[in-house]
Amino acid sequence: MKKFTNLLIVASLALAGAVMAQQPMPEESPSKKAPDKKPPAEMKPRAPHAPKTEAPAEKGPAVKEPVAKEPAASHTPAAPKLEKKAPKPEPPATETKASGDQPDANTTPAAKKEHPAQSKKEMKKAPVADTAPGATPAAAKTTPPPPAAATTPAAPTSANAAPSVSQSNPTTAQVNPATAKKPDPQKVEQIKTQHQNFKAQPRPDKVPAVTFSANFRIQGSDRWQGSQYEVYRSYHPERHDRGWYHSHYQRVELISGGYYYFNNGYWYPAWGYNPANEYYAYDAPIYAGKHAEPPDKVIADVQAVLQEMGYYKGEVDGLLGPLTREALTGYQSEQGLTATAVIDEPTLDALGMG
Hints:
mainly alpha, 20 helices, 4 strands
């Protein structure tokens, strides 16, 4: 019976101790001084003090059990904190599923942490759709059409460096008439008037002479299309004496150190007419226009006009040398003409001298 009564007392004291937990600890010291074991009748009046000594000594674990339960109840306020956090992930999860392609506008920071894969995929899709034309290498490969059009004027540059190469490429370039250079008609007439009595002089030291070759053909002329280029496609040098030329052609003249014969609007080198005068800067027909002017005057007029337009950088000497052929190639290429590097009918007409 004593043990039963002690248990009841301990339980009551434990409940009372929980209520009186805020009381100062020094009051327990007198209880420690009363270790005498007394009958239950005598301990009832001293219930607040005597059982405290026995409770920790004999039933220490029993006192700890209610203490462990009470802190659990004291931590109940943490439950609302969890409840506040719990609803946060749920709405973004449903919003991301519903929104699909708009995660940035609808998702919260918590949703971004929970669904990083979706946000990354969507962020990748957006820039590809917006910046693909300029950022992706595939688009860079598709953009070259504008550069291709821009490189068409580069043909004259390469042609100027090597006129013979330009002759092998007879492709006609596409030219914008608004941007193509055009000669000034007044300037052309002024130049022609100044060169009315022009006479070219041989200059083998600066413009080397070409030699006769029966197998010579103008390079690339076989691919020049059009009747106006037939004389160049069919041209091949011939060597004859003076009598032969006079019997075939009415007009044979000494021009800048070499004899030329005139036939159907073109001047040709008269190889063999006089072996002492065979200075020719280039072996090809020269178109003279409707007025059949001497070839050196026609060459001087073309040089002066091309010089005014910025194509020709040499002297106006009336000789169809390398610099003159380079200037002709540049002009012909930019005008969309066949790059022949010679004075042909289309070129002379384009310059306003036909």
